[in-house]
Amino acid sequence: MFTEMSECKMLQVSLLCLLSLMLLSHVTAICPVSQPCQCDISIHCQNRNLTEVPPAMSSDGEDFLGLYLSQNRITDIKSDTLQGYHVSSIDLSHNPLVHLDNMAFVGMEKYLLELNLEDVHITTLPSSIAQLINLQTLNIKNNPISGIPSAFTANIGQSLLSFSFGGTKIRYWPTALNHLVRLKALDMSHNVVTFMREGAVSAFADTLQELRLVNASLSPFQAELSKLKALTLLDLSYNSIVDIPPGALTNMSFTLKKLTMSHAHLSYLPEALYDLNVLEELDLSFNPMQSTNADIIGTSDNSLLRNSAATLRFVNLSSCGLNAIPRAVVNLDQLEVLDLSRNRIVVLNNHQFSSLPHLRTLLLNDNPLMSIPYLSFSGLTSLTYLNLARCYLTYIPSSSLPEVQNLDTLDLSSNQITRIPDVAFPGAPKLSAVDLSNNSLVYIFDYAFTDAHSVRTLRLSRCSLTRLPSSLSQADGLRTVFVDGNPIPCDCDLSWILTWQRQSGIIPNIVGRCADHPTMTISTYVSTRLQHDCGSVVG
Predict the structure, then answer these.
(1) Given this model, what pLDDT does residue 35 score?
(2) Neighbours of 53 (CB within 10 A)
(3) Position 27 pLDDT exceeds 50
(4) Can you name the residues that pair with 459 across neighbouring β-strands?
(5) Burial letters 270-279, b for 16+ CB under 10 A, else e
(6) Distance CA 82, CA 54 (A)
């Protein structure tokens, strides 16, 4: 019985595969355009150096998912150019259109769902777009359009779900948006909006889920934004917004999942964050947080982000001028990524991150750290990536490593480390990649890599090394070591490698060049000449 059932299933799978091949062959056979375009379920003509849209050779009504014509040199779309194409999506983006006929989309009124006209140099919107009564997605970004007529959106307002018109010459909040009663996504980035009039979002206050107003010259935070009740994503980066008033995010308390306000003018963490209960990603990077706001330097366990503690996965507070680890990140027990890079943090405290058991990535690079106490990373049981590059460290924080048992990658590049001590990487059984490049190493101890059995990749590039340290042989799992940019000569000082090779049977790939033979790599010298030149030294 089991064999019969198995054979039956195999037959069903075979028939399904055969049917798929037949269908694919059928679609390919009736492709309505010739080379260089190709067809599957869509017609692919993108980036083919075309100067015109290839005419459809058949008008039998075969349906395809999309017609993709982006990144060509098409300059003219006449009234009959697209006739014969039966598609639900058209992409004409990144073509230098000189002429786009007002009747270009006539005949597609009922079945065209998506239209991409990004960066096609049009100055006005073809009136035939307004007749696409089932259009759901429209992208007209990066065109020198100065306005959107109200009549343009009147017919498509019941169907349009996503509208992108960033990077145009529009200098106001268009009243034409009042017709878009089902809108879910709106991108007006890189337009000079400045001000949102009363009622600006009324038409879609209950439906809009994603709003991008990047670099829109907004100042201050606009009250109209507070009326959006279904928002899941809000991006207000590159605006002169100094604060989000308390209560401004109340209507989106249980919907907003991603908030981005990078490169704004925030001088502290807005109190409005307290109202967010399902936030997953927060990016407030590149804000001048110079104040003594209690949530930045305070010691209480309370935090403006505590209502999102169960959902917050990603926090970016990079380049905010912070002098200490913000209290706001305390007790975010589901946090997975924390970026505190490029700040002014000088000292870490013991148990600094102990309330972040799910943190996987911690970025502390480009901070003037002077001290890392041995329990600084206590509690980071899930941490796999730790970046401490360019932190002015003078030593390897070896004593801290046993606290991060799952650490996979450690970046200590471009510090002021001069020595690699004995047992430099203890108690890190999963550590596979270490970067010590751009440190002026003066001395590497004989047992430096004892207990570094899991390290597979070691970077010692540009470390002023004049010899390859024999202690590398202790890292018996090492597969690649980078020593490029060091004045290491290829001579009998490398003869210890022959002993290493005899004992282990395999040696890592050594990436770097011989200082005395710049055209020869160290690996080549080891594999082709070392035995000949120095075999007698080893005996």
Answers:
(1) 87
(2) 22
(3) no
(4) 435, 482
(5) bbbbbbbebb
(6) 9
* Token pair in block for residue 464: 């002023």
Overall pTM > 0.85: yes
pLDDT (average), residues 489-499: 92
Q: Which residues of 203-237 are buried (b: 16+ CB within 10 A; e: fewer)?
A: bbbebbbbbbbbbbebeebbebbbbbbbbbbbbbb
CA dist 303 and 151 (Å) reads 48
| Cross-strand bridge partners of residue 185 | 162, 210
Go through the chain and tell me how many residues it has: 539
**Cα 146 to Cα 141, 160, 174, 450, 518, distances in angstroms:** 12, 21, 10, 67, 59
Q: Is the dihedral of CA 256, 260, 265, 268 positive or negative?
A: positive
The pLDDT of residue 19 is above 50: no
pLDDT of residue 417: 97
Q: What percent of the chain has pLDDT over 70?
A: 91
- 8 Å CB contact between 251 and 281: no
Q: How far apart are the first and last CA of the chain?
A: 69
**DSSP letter (8 states) at residue 527:** H
β partners of residue 361? 337, 385
Q: Where are the alpha helices (DSSP H) in 30-158?
A: 150-154
CA proximity to 188, closest of 209, 207, 163, 208: 163
